[in-house]
Amino acid sequence: MHRAQEDHRSNTFPALTRGLLEDLRPVFGSTAGRPFIFASTGTGMWEAALTNVLNPGDRVLAARFGQFSHLFIDTAERLGFVVDVIDLPWGEALDPALVAERLAADPSHDIKAVLVVHNETATGVTNDLAAIREAIDGCGHPAFLLVDGVSSIGSLDFQFDTWGVDVAICGSQKGFMMPAGLGMLCVSPRAMAAVEHGRFPRAYFDLRPQVLHNDQGYFPYTPALAHLYGLREALDMIAADGMPAIAARHARLAEGVRRAVAAWDLRFCARDPERRSNTVTAILVPDEIDARQVIDIAARRWDLALGSGLARLNGKVFRIGHLGDLNPLMLLSAIGGAELALREAGVDVPLGSGVAAAQRWYAEST
Question: Would the pTM count as exceeding 0.85?
Answer without folding.
Answer: yes
